[in-house]
Specification:
- The longest helix has 29 residues.
- With 262 residues, the chain is α/β, with parallel strands linked by helices.
- α3 packs parallel to α4 and α6 crosses α7.
- Helix content is 46%, strand content 14%.
- The chain has eight helices and seven strands.
- The two termini are 27 Å apart.
- The chain has one domain: NAD(P)-binding Rossmann-like Domain (Rossmann fold).
- α4 links the parallel β4 and β5.
- It is globular and about 55 Å long.
Length: 262
């Protein structure tokens, strides 16, 4: 099976580290033009220069912080109005801080809703006219297995992740007739900076070492190990390609079997 994204342009959020970076790298390897979106201009330039290029690819950067939805909308709008194309969108940004839901503030919920649901919606509204015109498009949302099974200690995240999945399912039904798919990828415990923070918090709460906290987490995973960002990227590449044309409105876990739901 040859997964080719040649001739396609992918807008990828949070693409200077972790899962977003792994997706950008693999999509570039598959021949796509990459539009990197993140808040750190210097890191964006470093990633841009490191991406593979077959000589016909053009890689761009957009600088904006997901904490500022107005700015994100502005830079994406400017890119499109200046002739930029978005065939593939990967909605990806860091999750809300961990914590029990009973202690979460209204401001924490609003911030999470803004950086996930509202930005996803604004970007979709900007790219959908072009996708409909070309009768081809892919919208991928990097979410969490908490869509299927809430994770203890991630109250705000559990809530927002579920809302994101409902948003995606609703949108997928509305635009499927245009050969545009919308899917959610649900990473399990994956080696990212966010997971490091969760492990540190678990270790502090249980008064154990971070290595013990990590091993405890791995023990809950049937595969017996943490995931690699590139393993999430592999599924993203498949769904973004023509091979994924008949898959839409789904929530697919990539978690080594940890989620105890069908």
């Amino acid at each position: 099976m040859n997964i080719s994204l040649e001739g396609k342009t992918a807008l990828i959020g949070g693409s200077t580290q972790g899962i977003g970076l792994a997706i950008a790298q693999l999509f570039a390897d598959c021949g796509a033009n990459i539009v990197l979106l993140a808040r750190n201009a210097e890191k964006l330039k470093q990633v841009q220069s490191s991406l593979s290029n077959n000589g016909n690819q053009v890689h761009d950067i957009l600088v904006a912080d997901y904490a500022d939805p107005v700015l994100v909308e502005l830079v994406v709008r400017n890119f499109i109005e200046q002739g930029g194309v978005c065939d593939i969108v990967v909605n990806n940004t860091g999750g809300p801080p961990p914590g029990a839901i009973e202690h979460a503030t209204a401001e924490e919920f609003l911030a999470a809703f803004s950086s996930h649901i509202l930005i996803n919606q604004k970007i979709a509204q900007l790219v959908l006219p072009g996708m409909k015109q070309r009768q081809w498009g892919r919208i991928l949302n990097i979410v969490s297995t908490s869509v299927k099974q809430p994770i203890a200690g991630l109250g705000v995240s559990n809530t927002i992740r579920g809302a994101t999945a409902s948003w995606a399912k609703t949108l997928s039904n509305e635009i499927a007739k245009h050969n545009i798919t919308v899917n959610c990828i649900l990473p399990g415990a994956t080696k990212t900076g966010r997971l490091d923070a969760i492990i540190q918090r678990k270790a502090a709460q249980q008064n154990i070492s971070e290595e013990q906290a990590k091993q405890s987490m791995e023990h809950e995973i049937p595969a017996g190990r943490l995931g690699e960002p590139r393993e999430i990227a592999g599924l993203a590449a498949f769904l973004a390609s023509d091979w994924g044309a008949y898959i839409t409105g789904t929530n697919i876990a990539v978690d080594g079997g940890r989620t105890n739901t069908l």
